[in-house]
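for the writeup, i need someone to sanity check this before i put it in the appendix. the sequnce is what the collaborator sent (i think, or maybe the updated version? ugh). structure was predicted straight from it, no edits. if anything looks off just tell me and ill rerun, i have time this weekend
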Amino acid sequence: MVKEQMNHTIDKILANIEKVMIGKRDVAELSIIALLAQGHVLLEDVPGVGKTMMVRALAKSVNASFRRIQFTPDLLPSDVTGVSIYNPKEMEFEFRPGPLMGNIILADEINRTSPKTQSALLEGMEEASITIDGVTHKLKKPFFVMATQNPIEYEGTYPLPEAQLDRFLLKMKMGYPDPIEEMEVLHRAQKVPPIEELNPVIDLEELRSLQNQIKEVFVDDSIKRYIVDIVNKTRNHPSIYLGASPRGSIALMKAAQSYAFMYGRRFVLPDDIQYLTTHVLAHRIILKSEAKFEGISAEEVIDRIIGRVPVPVQRLVK
């Protein structure tokens, strides 16, 4: 697809991230799409490919507080959300906030911890608040989680249930760099890490303004019908046991609004839907055992669905 001129502010954020990241512009773009749409990202990949660096660069670029949570089998929910501790001097309980009380959170290896601790994080993602000892604490805004998980065939992992996977706006993979990119990584590793010299290009108030503007991006009824048709196909496909929920339809629309805004448009095109559908829906479906046995992936099934749903041709109102 032909991409239009990028929004100037978002282009500055991407350029800033690229001072640190090498050859992963598509991953950075998708992360910004989720951030602007007030969603969250699940990144499935092996260790050491730059996930932490990318999220730190994004946080620094928008002048947001960054927190990293390393999930382990013995991590407790209170280690994530915080805990109330009795203060004998004041004779009352005081809330000690956990790392979840930040703007941009890297939840590293989320499938290494128990389902109970996973739920503590996912509750905060869904409700934008956490409850400790009956007291509700609102999370900071903006609030963005990038959770990473090891590939599911790794030992010692707790796969996320489908209902929890559904909470992530996008799922993507970063992948290894090619040899030329990896050479550049080595060159940069000899010097002062670029992340230490990175400066913000916008502040949180500007980011919140961008998030509000996303909601004003126009979505024609023909585009909404296109989204519904794609999602409905996942519920009737012979290779799919469980299709995407209405939350998937909403997520696809919001992601498309964010993507259109990123490229300076105030309206969504069918191309936007086609580009984002795999990232938005593949983790929301469950394949039948026969499809898995044949080696068919969720991404392949979604791609086939996109190819079979008629594209709307109605002229969009700008």
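DSSP finds 13 helices and eleven strands in the chain. The mean pLDDT is 87.
thx in advance!!
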